[in-house]
Amino acid sequence: MMRFLIKYESNNGDYKNTTLNLSSNVTHNGSICGNDTQAALVAVQFGEGHSWSINITKNNETYQGDFITLTYNTNDTAVFPDAKRKGPVTVVVRDPLPPVQLNTVFVCHNSYLVEAENATQIFWNVTVQAFVQNGTVSKKESRCPADTPTSAPTISPTIANVTTAPRTTLSPAPTTAPKPVENPDTGNYSLKSGNKTCFLATVGLQLNVSQDKPLLININPKTTVADGACGNTTATLKLNDGNSTLIGFTFAVKNTSASVQKFYLREVNVTLLNRLNGSVISSADNSNFSKWDAFLGSSYMCRKEQTLQISEDVQVHTFNLWIQPFLVEANKFATAQECSLDDDSILIPIVVGAALAVLIAIIVVAYIIGRRKSYAGYQTL
What is this structure's pTM? Predict the structure, then answer.
């Protein structure tokens, strides 16, 4: 099974997200088994001019996917309404999965993702054996990392563990109070252009999703993979947390004067996926931000918590943010421009001024009361 999340430009210049699913009629014209000198090819065609293929090469003891090619047709108005670019669009990406031993079946029940350009490809319930020997499918399996069980089940930090005491009397068993959600761990992410680091980010991320009930999700840096693209005027950081949460940050450059340029956060998109079947649980996008601006060549820092409103139902909270999407030198952050929330020097004069104002008010009131008492005593005399 496969599904594709695609971002495309509309006629009015906005970018929209759409989901391309396999249709009921799928053909596999052009697929070949391959041999010792020729790669195997799995090619499928579906819907209104869409196709997908992967070529699989054979080595002495293993086989491995080489290139994955997705072609989607924006003339399909049911999937791409109001698309600015018309016609087929092809995306090619290398298969990220490791080699599989010959005479072994590759199996992946859980969903895994392959990202390239503006397309995210989602696969699940996959069973493949290339270069089958003697026409017999092997009984040996090679499982994908997504199917590998962890040492302990992962429990969402938003679901409180409720422990019930043993029932020794007729009184109700006590329950523990829900544990508050802790702040997320801070992750370090980077992108490279060739051998040079072009994007640096340090941030703790937490999602607030309002569905049937509010849901807080901490992004785990240990299971999060960074991808994206660096450019001269735009840069994008895509974070994939265990094939279940996708967060994209897009930065752009603006001219504040004839000689001064700044960068700023322009867009954030969030997609939550069902790990078992790859279906989209929630998707939100906001391309109208103008935050985190700093002079080009510097970095932006904000240690305090910030909230990005993506949609009515989705928020992104950031902690310990330090980011530089352009002009990174020597793999290090440049001098940081700090957010106003971190600038305690602003609060000090405000607090002092407020205290002085209260003190002056007390003195004035006391003076007025004293004058009135003196006047009342004079009238009595």
Answer: 0.63
